[in-house]
Amino acid sequence: xxxxxxxxxxxxxxxxxxxxxxxxxxxxxxxxxxxxxxxxxxxxxxxxxxxxxxxxxxxxxxxxxxxxxxxxxxxxxxxxxxxxxxxxxxxxxxxxxxxxxxxxxxxxxxxxxxxxxxxxxxxxxxxxxxxxxxxxxxxxxxxxxxxxxxxxxxxxxxxxxxxxxxxxxxxxxxxxxxxxxxxxxxxxxxxxxxxxxxxxxxxxxxxxxxxxxxxxxxxxxxxxxxxxxxxxxxxxxxxxxxxxxxxxxxxxxxxxxxxxxxxxxxxxxxxxxxxxxxxxxxxxxxxxxxxxxxxxxxxxxxx
Length: 303
Ligand SMILES: [Fe+2]
Fold this sequence. Notes:
Blueprint: H1 8-17, H2 23-43, H3 47-62, H4 70-77, H5 80-90, E1 128-137, E2 147-151, E3 172-176, E4 182-188, E5 193-194, H6 200-207, E6 213-214, E7 217-223, E8 230-236, E9 255-256, E10 258-259, E11 272-274, E12 277-279, H7 294-302
Parallel strand pairs: 1-11, 1-12, 8-9
Antiparallel strand pairs: 1-4, 2-3, 2-7, 5-6, 7-8, 10-11
Helix pairs in contact: 1-2
Residues 103, 105, 217, 219 line the site of fe (ii) ion.
């Protein structure tokens, strides 16, 4: 009979899990268990603190709906999402545009639009801009017919999912690059925003005296057959939180700006936001999306 104490409990738990047939599940659960036990030992976790943790995670789950994903927000604010992105980029066989967060506001099935169309569907006081660039492969050739999904907050820093009727899509669109790999569309310059603070993650951010802001940004998912999907975001220079993103999405190579005089703009007389994307060749590993449409996550849990 094994004596269970604060040291032997880890080995006992791992022994019992050793029967897991799926090798990856076995590896992940064993490592998770070791780290959780080491965490509890390191901080000398008390029963009250353990219960606080259980209450916190319960509240995070209860806050999740088809339009709100508090667990992704938690992962983002802990830096875990950004870390998973970095690990994903390390597996690429060719260099490409760096990954950034999907975040909790992605919607699949955004409106399919033509090049030059606007993604703005509601009256706005935002600065209209032309968002454009090219999608290249590693040989430096434009990738034709690539799918460019774009979504962003408005000039007040809010996404459609945070509005009165979150089922109405705004400031989202799906485009196809032309024969030269070009894309161009009309939108408005986004404003940075405070992450949703009315849930348990907001309580955590306040307890840590963090500001809770993200710098202004525009999200992208870009894909084409034979290429690794690029899941990323562009960040606007000049934003006061560009160096202190609450969810650690900003990296230097993804920072761009609004150009008020751009003679190369495919839509003349508009300020521009320009960025070229680079798609690496496809490799044998899964999606780079550290996030998902909240309605899909809820649907999977319910089914
Ligand atoms: Fe965002």
